[in-house]
Amino acid sequence: MSSVVEESAVQPGTRDKRWWVLGVLAIAQLMVVLDATVVNIALPDAQKDLGFSDANRQWVITGYTLAFGSLLLLGGRLSDLVGRRLMFITGLIGFAVASAVGGAASSFHMLVGARVAQGVFGAMLAPAALALLTVTFTEPKEKAKAFGIFAAVAGAGAAIGLLLGGALTEWGSWRWALFVNLAFAGVALVGALLLLARHVSHGKASLDLPGTITATAGLFGIVYGFSHAADHGWGSATTVWCLVVGFILLVAFVFIETRVAQPLLPMRIVLDRHRGGAYLAVFVAGIGMFAVFLFLTYYMQLILKYTPMVTGVAYMPMVVGMILASTTGPTLLLPRFGPKLVSAIGFLVAAVAMVWLTRIDLHSNYFTHVMPGLLLMGLGVGAAMSTAFACATSNVHHTDAGVASAMVNTSQQVGGSIGTALLSTFAATAATNYMVGKTPTPVNLADAQVHSYITSFWWAGGFLLAGAVLMAIIMPNTVPVPAEGETVLAG
User: Fold this and answer.
1) CA-CA distance, 448 to 475, in Å (whole number)?
2) pLDDT tens-digit series, residues 310-319
3) Which helix (H) or strand (E) holds 319?
4) Residue 2 falls within a domain, yes or no?
5) Is 233 in the same domain as 347?
6) Per-residue pLDDT tens for 167-190?
7) Which of 386, 378, 334 is CA-nearest to residue 356?
8) How large is the angle between the packed helices 273-291 and 339-357, nearest 10 degrees?
9) Which residue would you say has higher pLDDT here, 438 or 170?
10) What's the CA gap between 294 and 275, in Å, rounded?
11) Domain that holds residue 64
12) Same domain, 200 and 217
């Protein structure tokens, strides 16, 4: 093949098929996002079937989280270097194979190995999907609509995972919580092969090896440190060493990135106020969302005695709110009011939702005490997240689209890990303090649990309020400029 690509053979993005491409990317994103919660619901049945201990149970979740969170930046940069279509398809196939192995697991180690592999291939898939969206939709109005739909899928995926996990576990087997990914991956793979255009190389580029090592090891240390703190406390030597070493490595990573010719993460990506504000927004939203999905799930199942299936259905008002805010915010609110106002108000609404949920008790009514909070949370986080997705790749060069997209997923993953550790610690402390001087009767113990959930909601509301203040300070109020399209081979 000639090294010179003829002008007639290239086009800026996959313009003629762009809405079909959005469907393919949304399916893949939904698969990756819901996998974080669909397995949680099935975990007790998997533990009973495979016979592993409570102490080992966390590794089914942590294995995926560690691989996914620590490899995202590498996956994003590789998609810039070798092509987003290739990384997307490789990630899909690998994720599907890992899901099949996990669903067929005959032992604990086989299941954990499959979950780690899911995380590895998810780290290829997720940044490539958002990067493909970035370089495909470059017209402002269309980009706003496309990113709104994508953000709705990304935000609602976790709640859909709870519903799907409950249904599959209740009506089938825990194994179907993993096997279901084969259906998503199969549809997305066919669409990718038919619709996604091939990447055109723009010259040789090298991978920043020192940056890759320090970033991957640093993120691993941070994510594992916070995950370990959630189960073993902040005084654990492992927790302290992981967080300290992780922090030092990330500082070294930033130092390296300012001095190498072809950095893994160019500092211009995060120093832009639109993109920096977007990454911070996703980070804060990750903390707030964790409080809802973990503690409200505990409340509905342990206190209100909902089945997993009913719990999943109970989250639907939040999904509806997210879809409404994510699909209308970028097209109607963002052009009129700007990202500063939309994201700040979104966080304020989400903070109000958290305050609403602090009204729960042992005998709360779902329709008056829970559902309004979920609807408000969906509207608030939907507005903030869709704005963040629109700004995260704002005005980025197509050669940086992958790593800019990876920063979105990395921010959300680290935010979720920090939220897990901090809010779990606050909740456990609140429950312990509540029982001081009280007889451990069933009613008092249940009250202590509800008190711990309420405490976590207050803290999450505080984080979300801080997010609103930070958006008002950092995020510009100019409408983000779309990224440029990528030159690709036609056909």
Assistant:
1) 39
2) 888 899 999 8
3) helix 316-328
4) no
5) no
6) 888 888 889 989 999 999 999 999
7) 378
8) 10
9) 438
10) 28
11) 9-207+264-489
12) no
